[in-house]
């Protein structure tokens, strides 16, 4: 028998989750899965597969692609292919006059025979773009993703990560309280509905975001939707995020049931969101004496 708790920090591009498990023969919870999910796209973000000097795979988010290979900005500059400028885009090229096309061809050393007709030069330049230039990987703006797409991605990605046959005892979802968080509130409900329709889910709870900060010794920074000046609100938000990361590091370093996650946490790019999901779950475990 195993007790499972999923703690979720709501987001679109950076939804963080931490899956805690405690087996019947153990007195401690451990982390079974801990990661970030991007709900803005069906496929996972491609990573740069170039090798660093120390032999480690780069693994940074790819910015460019060509021939099914993916490159971050740094490693793309070390390849023989060109990074596409605004001039080296088909949509731009096809609108230019003949003399401008000649200037572009000469600038980028695109070979052509003289004299040449405009359509032939267009073909030469577009061929160069297709064969010699990276394709830029477009980043989708989270605010432009419709809720239907997000809902489908919740279903498909959660199905892969949380098998239906694995019983979930508690699902904890960060409660969205900001007056400007209507969209996030909807996503909170969609996540809850996913687990409601999963017959292996026992309890679902919306958890106040201030609870995760109660893991810190002493003071808790209050988190509320007040009409405070934007600069102060931004500073408070950054302070909470920093406090969460530091507390998470402290726990991962000192509590033996979590020390195996320290190296993973240290190299992760989204420590703040991982911390939020972890501390929220840990608060619940201690508050409920599980």
TrEMBL record:
Record region (Disordered): 217-238
Mitochondrial resolvase Ydc2 catalytic domain residues: 5-54
Protein name: Mitochondrial resolvase Ydc2 catalytic domain-containing protein
GO molecular function terms listed in the Swiss-Prot or TrEMBL record: nucleic acid binding
Lineage start: unclassified sequences, metagenomes, organismal metagenomes
UniProt xrefs under SUPFAM superfamilies: Ribonuclease H-like (SSF53098)
Family matches, as Pfam families: Ydc2-catalyt (PF09159)
Biased composition (Polar residues): 217-232
């Amino acid at each position: 028998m195993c007790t499972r708790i999923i703690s979720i920090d709501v987001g679109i591009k950076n939804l963080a989750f931490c899956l805690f498990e405690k087996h019947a023969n153990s007195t401690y919870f451990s982390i079974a899965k801990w990661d970030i999910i991007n709900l803005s796209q069906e496929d996972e973000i491609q990573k740069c597969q170039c090798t660093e000097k120390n032999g480690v795979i780069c693994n940074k988010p790819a910015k460019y692609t060509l021939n099914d290979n993916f490159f971050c900005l740094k490693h793309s500059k070390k390849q023989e292919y060109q990074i596409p400028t605004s001039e080296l885009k088909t949509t731009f090229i096809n609108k230019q006059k003949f003399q401008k096309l000649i200037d572009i061809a000469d600038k980028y050393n695109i070979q052509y025979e003289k004299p040449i007709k405009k359509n032939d030069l267009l073909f030469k330049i577009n061929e160069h773009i297709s064969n010699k230039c990276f394709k830029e990987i477009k980043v989708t703006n989270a605010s432009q993703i419709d809720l239907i797409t997000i809902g489908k991605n919740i279903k498909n990605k959660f199905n892969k990560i949380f098998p239906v046959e694995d019983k979930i005892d508690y699902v904890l979802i960060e409660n969205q309280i900001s007056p400007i968080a209507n969209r996030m509130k909807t996503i909170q409900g969609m996540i809850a509905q996913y687990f409601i329709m999963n017959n292996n889910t026992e309890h679902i709870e919306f958890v106040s975001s201030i609870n995760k900060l109660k893991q810190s010794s002493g003071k808790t920074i209050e988190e509320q939707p007040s009409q405070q000046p934007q600069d102060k609100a931004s500073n408070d938000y950054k302070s909470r995020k920093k406090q969460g990361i530091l507390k998470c590091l402290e726990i991962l370093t000192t509590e033996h049931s979590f020390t195996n996650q320290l190296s993973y946490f240290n190299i992760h790019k989204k420590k703040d969101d991982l911390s939020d999901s972890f501390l929220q779950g840990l608060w619940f475990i201690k508050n409920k004496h599980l």
